[in-house]
Amino acid sequence: WVWYSLRRGMTMAYYEDRVPQEIKPPQKRRILLGAAFGSKNGALALRQDIKHTMQNISNAKWLRIDARRPSKDRLEVKVYKDSVFCVVPKGDSASRRGLSTCIIYGSIPIVCSDHFVLPYHNILDYSKFSFHIPEAACTSFLKTVENIKKDVIQSMYAELLKVRNAFIFIPAKKTNTSITNNTMKNVPIYVDRNTKSDTFNNP
């Protein structure tokens, strides 16, 4: 299952050592639309289009991520935790771990990647807490975000809170054990507690 999913561009839950216990509701966030990414060769044109579109949207913030900066800085977190929506474009591959970061910090994801196989896609209804937009329509959709009604935002945020824990992975101890192996050990527990399903055993 892991090999099958990763080969198709799926992003697993990843190690996050600063998971916030409390996150802001939408009405207390000062940024409507946030994004944080650098220049990936495989998605340069799309990312440039998103950047330029956001520059013309009021209350939007784009942050350039420099691959040379220390990873501990996590500057993107400052954007996501204050954004109602966050843009998740593709990277060099179809997947991007920024999806998990958005969800962990309570920002509703707008995924712009045609071939992104979403984590737990066969047991979670992503339409309830995110938008998955074709790459060709991404910038057009971003221009309409200001028109999304408050009750829709509140509903999607409430659904996001229900699934948020599925995207958090914190090992009990920092060991050399594979994160993927630990994650897969925990997946059946999450599925059993939340869906009473054995879907993950039947990819």
Instruction: Determine the mean pLDDT.
Output: 77
Which series of helices and strands comes N to C?
HEEHEHEHEEHHEH
Number of DSSP helical runs: 7
Shape: globular
What's the number of extended β-strand segments? 7
Structural class: alpha/beta
Largest beta-sheet details: 5 strands, parallel
Estimated share of beta-strand residues? 5-15%
Report on this model:
- This protein is an alpha/beta fold and 203 residues long.
- The protein contains 7 helices and 7 strands.
- It has a 5-stranded parallel sheet, sandwiched between helices.
- The longest helix is centred in the C-terminal third of the chain and has 16 residues.
- The chain is globular and about 35 Å long.
List the main descriptive attributes of the protein structure presented here.
203 residues, alpha/beta, five-stranded parallel sheet, two-stranded parallel sheet, 7 strands, disordered N terminus, disordered C terminus
Short description:
The chain is of the alpha/beta class and 203 residues long. It has helices at 2-7, 44-54, 75-80, 98-104, 138-142, 150-163, 179-194; strands at residues 14-15, 31-37, 60-64, 83-89, 108-112, 131-132, 168-169.
